[in-house]
Amino acid sequence: MNQTALLEGFSKTKTKRFKVKHPKRKLFRSNDPLLSVFMWGINHTVRELQHIHVPVMLMPDDFRSFSKIKISNHAFNKENLPSNFKVKEYCPLVFRNIRERFGLDDMDFLNSLIKAPKPINPLRGGATYYLSSDRMYVIKTLTTEEVEEMHHLLKQYHPYVVDRHAKTLLPQYLAMYRFTVDNVETYMVVIRNVFSTHLKVHKKYDLKGSTVDREASHKEREKSLPTLKDNDFLADGLKICIGEEGKEALMETLAADVEFLVKLNIMDYALLLGIHDLDRAVEDALEQQVDEDEDDDEYDSTGSGGMALTPPESPNSQRKSSSLATSRIDPNKDIYAIPSRGATQNSPGPRHIYFLSIVDVLTHYGVKKAAAKAAKTMKYGAGVDGISTAEPEQYSRRFLAFISEAIE
Fold this sequence. Notes:
By secondary structure, the chain is of the alpha+beta class. Helix content is 39%, strand content 17%.
């Protein structure tokens, strides 16, 4: 074959053009610059930890350590991220170890938090709360005093979690940060969500074992899911129906947790109780199906002779069937869930799933709380035992007695 024929052959050959694919860059998009920086910070710090070896044991310096990064004139993604911000992560190796103790994978943790969290109604106090997009985690803002208390708590909290093999109802503190945006410093802590990612909570209580000024306000009751209190719980005549064996196991864990808090001179904590009502869930699902069927009837008005227009494999049909499915506990996600006897056996009583955890464990009994107790004693009298502000020992006894009485 001569050279001319060879060149003609090459010219007739079809060449495939390859497009160069650039890796997608994550856009930490949120209307709130603070949340954009939060997502960026989570992504950066967790990925950085992947390059650091896991130590055989944590050292005292690990509880004082931090990592800090300052971003100035950030050219990429300016429409989503501020041009100048700072991220500081506290005790990164300690919190990584805590996440591991609680059975959480760091990349799963990261993926849950790099989509914009949504603000939620606070339980109490002046903190701001956010819920991760997959509902696995709650992000809470902290005061400088609470950050100091967290550092004090962490030195005892980590060994306690280790000794208990993560069998605790204390909050699962998983990461702590300081974000500086527009020269404003915001402290945030990431906590495991007590409630389910897929089971609706129909009632919610914040229980301290106190009866003085412990009822939800009228403003609180106007919310779709108000946080009710001790007197509301008593007035509703509710019981946590988990049986003797369940009560024994729960009270053992609570007693150990409360003893730990007493040693740290901590009080003013509460038991957060969420109730998923299986019967109400079925009613809600039936109502939802009726609404969906009515929507289908409206769509059918174009004339289909009454034939089903929704294919059997369509997402809409799957949603209908799943909405009527029995409420089930996911053991990998619903770690705080305890079913009532009526939910698991053919026993009389309510068909509930309870979600229980101790919350707000950063209040140290100091001068301020002692003064608050004196003020309330003056107002209600020294003989009143139900005042919420009390010494840690007294507070713990009253708290455990109230919860024990609430369980049957």
